[in-house]
Amino acid sequence: LIRQKRIDVESLINREVALEEVTAAYDELGNKEGPNPLAVVIAYPDSVPGHPEVKPLIKMAPPPAQNGVISLGLIGAGSFAKSTHIPNLENLKQGIRIVGVCTGTGATASTLGRQLNAPIISNDYREIVNSPGIDAVLVSTRHHNHAEIAEAALKADKHVYLEKPLALTLNQLDSLDRTVRGMSSCPVFMVGFNRRYSPFARQLAELLSRRTTPLVITYRVNAGTLPANHWSVTEEGGGRLRGEACHMVDLFRFLVNKPLEEYDIQALRSQPNLRPDENFVAHFRYADGSLCTLVYTAIGNRELAKEWVEVHWDGRSGVLDDFKELSLYGCSGNLSLSRQDKGHPAALESFINAISSGISFPTPWEQLYETTQLTIALDREVWGRLPA
Fold it and tell me: For position 13, what pLDDT does the model report?
């Protein structure tokens, strides 16, 4: 309510005092003589002179290695990691255990670490990626430092599952590209473009592998609005085109299975309250002539399902309704699930299998690079600026 400006607390604050004056401030609050202030703000200093820097590692040494068990460190543990990644990891049948937790604050890391019985707890990702007791990391921080953390982890010889996006800028992307291509043997590196791992996408890909014509695909996303101060539309998130539409671009690449040749994008610009990176139509043409259209909007009605995909080829059609139901026309293989499945569990399972089998890139690096480079370019065009 405070963030939405529905409650005004400034009128309750009498004054601001320095930390060294806090005793007098408390005495003033408890003074029975005269009017008492409702609230006093205590101003803490940015640093304390003469005090050494507190080390970020706040608990324990590396756990002993266990044969056949992958030791995983979590870097970032927001609502998505807690509601999706951690339950999916706990449900995996393969040998994996969470031994490290890193979040932006030590208190959050400590609480979650105790819940997961993880012996390594920190608020500095470097303590996780450099720990000899950790084999792999799952990075689920805010988007702006994805590339930095992934690159550090790869250089530390850690397997990496990186939530999307891979990078927000061309500088980040090219730095990662140099690191990956400069390695004689790269650890497993996977980006959370999970929709290609959904059972619906896999079913479609199997059918499309025998096609004789190009594809025509339409992907509509009814994204809904976000508050202007939501982190995903700030510099930390990079906006919805780079931060979420990369999912849709990756699914196009997976289904077409050919390199991109041309693209075009048009965005709403007529009203200043409409963000162009969440109200746009993009067109893509691939090397085999396939045509894909992405319609992404935040001005639709929330009662309409979020994602709708139509695929047409060889006199056949497939309609995917919000990753719950796939209806096929002209061929068999309809698929319907009681719950939405965007491929999160299967993506993590693929990551673990890749570690066991020694496959560096479950999704080819060239496709990860192409998708990320493309979404950065699209974002540049809708905003009319050059990315760093």
Answer: 77
Q: What are phi and psi for residue 311, nearest 5 degrees?
A: -125, 130
* Average pLDDT, consecutive stretches of 10 residues, N- to C-terminus, the chain (388 residues): 67 75 71 68 62 45 62 93 93 87 84 90 94 96 97 97 98 97 94 98 98 99 94 94 98 98 95 93 99 98 98 99 98 96 97 92 97 97 74
**CA–CA separation, 43 vs 53, rounded Å?**
20
Contact indicator for 169, 388 with CB cutoff of 8 Å: yes
What is the residue whose two structure tokens read 């079913």?
203
Tokens of 384: 């009319």
Q: Which residue has the tokens 């963030």?
A: 3
Determine the pLDDT at residue 76. Answer: 94
Domains of the chain: 1-53 (no CATH), 57-192 (3.40.50.720), 195-383 (3.30.360.10)
For residue 79, give Cα distances in angstroms to 63, 141, 167, 371: 26, 11, 21, 26
Q: Which amino acid is at 378?
A: L
Cα–Cα distance measured from residue 187 to residue 202, given in angstroms and rounded to the nearest whole number:
25
3-state secondary structure 8-71: CCHHHEEEEEEHHHHHHHHHHHCCCCCCCCCEEEEECCCCCCCCCCCCCEEECCCCCCCCCCEE
> Is 381 in contact with 270 (CB distance < 8 Å)?
no
DSSP 8-state class, residue 204: H
Largest CA distance in the chain: 89
In the chain, count H helices and then E strands. Answer: 12, 17
Give the pair of three-digit tokens for residue 215: 């594809």
Structure-block tokens of residue 95: 């040998």
Whether the CB-CB separation of 112 and 89 falls below 8 Å is answered with no
Residues ≥6 apart with Cβ < 8 Å to 160: 136, 137, 139, 150, 153, 154, 187, 188, 189, 190
State the angle between helix axes of 365-383 and 170-181 in degrees (0 to 180), rounded to the nearest 10: 170
Contacts of 117 (CB under 8 A, 6+ apart): none
Across 295-325, b (16+ Cβ under 10 Å) vs e yields bbbbebeeeeeebbbebbbeeeebbbeebbe
Is the CA virtual torsion 199, 204, 209, 210 positive or negative? Answer: positive
